[in-house]
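dumping this here so i dont lose it
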């Protein structure tokens, strides 16, 4: 949403108008304004703290407001915190306005559902499990409104295809929001109890501990990403002819993993595997990586050591998991003629089979200094021809389906010399048929 299309701005404007309607006071409903101000201040403070530590939004306070207050007053609780919270990317004002409208609508709808189902009485005189019914319905409404609005902005501002914009949003957000809803209900019940608001605030203590742990996780994850970026940048500097190749192989590996039905954790691991598959090139002499002419058998043997070099570099990085096996075995072939160990069939780890296909596909569809890129259709045809001998047919099929859904934009990665000048060198490297997507790619 750095450059916001006009249709997305219209969408945001519509959400703002709807939020203003949601904030309109209802004469028949009176709210204790001290409670509104206290909850709004608490939410604003927690939002500033949480956002500064990149740990998300403090939904329990918002949901407690929805359980305690009439709909317009509850919706007002979200406004100051959303408008004041830090924003990481431009346009700052539009993002804050969008966030404020989104939360105002979500909290207003949540409070309305809770109010209509008699939730206010259930909070004043809690009768469990009956009190969970209106609260559960209200949490579902909150999650649904956020999902609808998030999907809309993805489709309009980020140009995500409509069939994918809402996919999985509701399912992914329901569980954490349900936990926040339970904390919000506990706050509301304690607020209305003889112990009063002070007791309600104690509910936030375990949430603060959870936020701290989540912040630690994010810092560790950021360190992991920095480690990977540093390794990839080092490879790109050493082997400039394939700059960007690692990132694209990571992207293709992730697409294949999703199409194979892997869970999110494995998808992320396969992305790491694709990004790091050539890190062992750091151990190969630069003159061989950048050699214009054909490689001698001895030079080829040196280059073929790069999977083992790479495995040595990453084997101590525990968070990479099965990605380490992919780094070691991504040049193995299904028929056993690959390297470094000549593994065949199912003895080759699945992660390595995925990265092998992604690596070959990007190598064929990227222009290098010594040959032109192939069209995507021709590259896919070559992969299908080599499936069963060099590549896992199931993985090749998954790539075909993924590209059918999402497409692919091949990138030019060559630096410097024209393609024609080194065309003969490609032939000298044995880049014919299946070799061009296996042994011939450095």
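and the seq i came up w/
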């Amino acid at each position: 949403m750095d450059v916001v299309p006009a249709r997305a701005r219209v969408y945001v404007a519509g959400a703002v108008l709807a939020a203003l309607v949601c904030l309109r006071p209802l004469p028949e409903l009176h709210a204790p304004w001290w409670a509104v101000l206290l909850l709004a201040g608490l939410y604003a403070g927690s939002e500033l703290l949480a956002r500064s530590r990149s740990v998300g939004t403090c939904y329990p306070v918002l949901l407690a407001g929805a359980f305690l207050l009439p709909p317009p007053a509850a919706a007002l609780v979200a406004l100051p915190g959303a408008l004041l919270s830090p924003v990481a990317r431009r346009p700052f004002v539009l993002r804050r306005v969008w966030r404020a409208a989104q939360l105002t609508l979500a909290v207003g709808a949540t409070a309305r559902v809770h109010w209509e189902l008699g939730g206010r009485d259930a909070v004043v005189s809690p009768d469990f499990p009956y009190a969970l019914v209106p609260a559960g319905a209200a949490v579902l409404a909150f999650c649904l409104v956020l999902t609808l609005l998030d999907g809309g902005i993805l489709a309009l501002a980020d140009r995500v295809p409509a069939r994918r914009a809402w996919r999985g949003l509701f399912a992914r957000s329901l569980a954490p929001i349900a936990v926040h809803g339970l904390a919000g209900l506990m706050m509301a019940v304690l607020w209305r109890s003889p112990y009063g608001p002070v007791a309600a605030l104690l509910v936030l203590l375990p949430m603060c501990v959870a936020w701290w742990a989540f912040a630690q996780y994010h810092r560790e994850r950021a360190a992991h990403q920095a480690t990977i970026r540093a390794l990839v940048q080092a490879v790109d500097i050493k082997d400039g002819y394939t700059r960007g190749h690692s990132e694209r192989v990571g992207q293709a590996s992730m697409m294949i993993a999703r199409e194979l039905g892997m869970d999110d954790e494995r998808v992320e691991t396969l992305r790491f595997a694709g990004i790091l598959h050539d890190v062992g090139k750091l151990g190969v002499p630069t003159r061989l990586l950048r050699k214009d002419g054909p490689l001698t058998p001895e030079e080829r043997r040196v280059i073929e050591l790069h999977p083992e070099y790479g495995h040595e570099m990453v084997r101590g990085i525990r968070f990479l998991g099965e990605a380490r096996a992919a780094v070691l075995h991504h040049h193995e072939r299904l028929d056993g003629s690959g390297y470094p160990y000549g593994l065949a069939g199912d003895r080759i780890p699945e992660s390595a089979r995925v990265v092998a296909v992604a690596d070959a596909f990007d190598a064929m569809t990227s222009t290098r200094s010594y040959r032109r890129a192939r069209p995507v259709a021709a590259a896919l045809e070559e992969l299908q021809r080599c499936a069963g001998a060099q590549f896992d047919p199931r993985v090749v099929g998954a790539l075909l389906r993924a590209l059918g859904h999402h497409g692919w934009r091949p990138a030019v990665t060559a630096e410097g010399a024209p393609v024609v000048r080194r065309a003969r060198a490609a032939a000298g490297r044995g880049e014919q048929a299946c070799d061009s997507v296996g042994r011939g790619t450095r």
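DSSP finds 21 helices and no strands in the chain.
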